Amino acid sequence: MKATDLFIKALENEGVEYIFGVPGEENLDFLNSMKGSKIKLILTRHEQGAGFMAATYGRLTGKPGVCLATLGPGATNFTTPAAYAQLGAMPMMMITGQKPIKKSKQGRFQIVDIVELMRPITKYTKQIVNGNNIASMVRESFRLAMEERPGAVHIELPEDIAAEECDDRIFNVVGFRRPDASEMAIKEAAKMIERANMPLLLIGAGANRKRTSQALTAFIEKTGIHFFNTQMGKGVVDERHDKFLGTAALSSDDFLHCAIGRADLIINVGHDVIEKPPFFMEKGGTKVIHINFSPAAVDEVYFPQLNIVGDIATSVMQIAKHIEDSSNWDLSYFDRIKTEVESHLSKYSEDNRFPILPQRLVHIIREELPEDGVATLDNGVYKIWFARNYKCYQPNTLLLDNALATMGAGLPSAMLAKLIHPDKKVISVCGDGGFMMNSQEIETAVRLNLSIVVIILNDSGYGMIKWKQEGMGFDNFGLDYKNPDFVKYAESYGAIGHRPSSDKNFKEVLANCLKIDGVHIIDLAVDYSLNHSILNVLLKEKTCIL
């Protein structure tokens, strides 16, 4: 059969539902082979949009999202989504075209060595040089993309190989069961927890997988141990739980870090070195149990005394069974810290000044979104306020990037979330800078008849960097710009534009947008004037004596 027909058949064999992309002439055989396939082509307006959608598909389903681009500039536009997926542990496959490799008619026109370019930011990258290798390469790529730690893979399909005749052979999808941690290690972990005076549970990005939520909730219910999470561990356990202390949204200095500093044992579940460390180990200080799919990589600030290596959910359940004696524990300080954290975070949540404060924005969105509603964030200073103030009730209901932390991913992530969860309400919160990096995907969202709400936080500048600039004592310089009329901009794509004039009006507009089908763009003026005084000044002046 034709090589591209085999390629599509291999992707169908893996259960692929969508291919997101911007095809070029080198992809035309592949495109033609898609015509009779059950796989749906989602045409985007930029390769970044396709890549971010594919990565988010992987994040939400655990199966690789697939995206397609041509050679040269099309393929190089995939590098940011590749790094986004690789650092964020999102399974994704990229397919790119290339000029014929057996006979060239155009010299080096548009040719870049994409395989080598992708090598540092993928788990696997390879050019197909024989059509008979396609089926095995697709199977191996999917296996690697899903294997812990998940990430990005890349296959390059040259134009002449795409048109070859090859053998019709497909490899079965063979699953595997992750090994369980040893019983000796499980018992040692239980003993360390029982001997501790102030144990604390940390939930990281690696715990944001299937089954882990139930196991961790049961662990907390049985032991009564307080927990906190990293930004990408949000929602693994319902944050309304009375043992939830908060999210480590900053590297240090937040009120939550008072609890971290007092703990004599941290049970670190799903630690991922990609995220900013929420605590630092020091020689002779806090003990750490590392529970993950693989052992801890040791560095100056992280060197756990015990590794529990195996399926996370199973490890957590087994440790809970062996914990029987909690007589050494004194967790009263954590209860006091919880009260302090919640008192601090609730400040300004009812402040209805306009332009809106980010704390108030978070409060309103949490009120308006149902429990299973999904909020996606682009990258900006507002991400810190969402991480600190927004309580997640279910896993993967706040999609933020604390790995690559790239701008431009918020809108495509929301589109994908709505595409695979059409019954859920979806809101994307973007800064004006990040929104404009992939704003052309509004057309894609309208064409797909998606019902999403995009809130653009408009401060006419790069707010995150301005906050950092002020924190370093520098003058405001070089970070301001002008924006288009976002209402007219939305309408030019066939979306519905809104510009609230007050806090009350914004709440009314948001409630109506969530009820009415279509792509809604809300141009919302934001007030970041308190960022410095709270995040740079107030937190550094705090004391941890309660």
Properties at a glance:
546 residues; alpha/beta; Rossmann fold; 3 domains; six-stranded parallel beta sheet; 18 strands; 38% helix; globular
Please characterize this protein's 3D structure:
The protein is of the alpha/beta class. The protein has three domains: 3-162, Rossmann fold (3-Layer(aba) Sandwich); 183-340, TPP-binding domain (Rossmann fold, 3-Layer(aba) Sandwich), CATH 3.40.50.1220; 347-536, 3-Layer(aba) Sandwich (Rossmann fold). The chain has helices spanning 3-13, 28-34, 47-61, 73-76, 79-88, 114-118, 134-146, 159-162, 183-195, 212-223, 256-262, 312-322, 332-346, 358-368, 382-389, 410-420, 432-437, 441-447, 463-471, 486-492, 503-515, 531-541, and strands at residues 18-22, 40-43, 65-69, 92-98, 124-127, 152-158, 199-203, 227-229, 244-247, 265-269, 287-292, 306-309, 374-377, 398-399, 426-431, 452-458, 496-498, 519-525. It has a six-stranded parallel sheet with strand order 2-1-3-4-6-5, sandwiched between helices. A six-stranded parallel sheet has the order 9-8-7-10-11-12, with helices on both faces. Strands 14-13-15-16-18-17 form a six-stranded parallel sheet, sandwiched between helices. Strand 1, helix 2 (28-34) and strand 2 form a beta-alpha-beta unit. It is globular, with a radius of gyration of 24 Å. The termini are far apart. The model has no long low-confidence stretch (mean pLDDT 95).
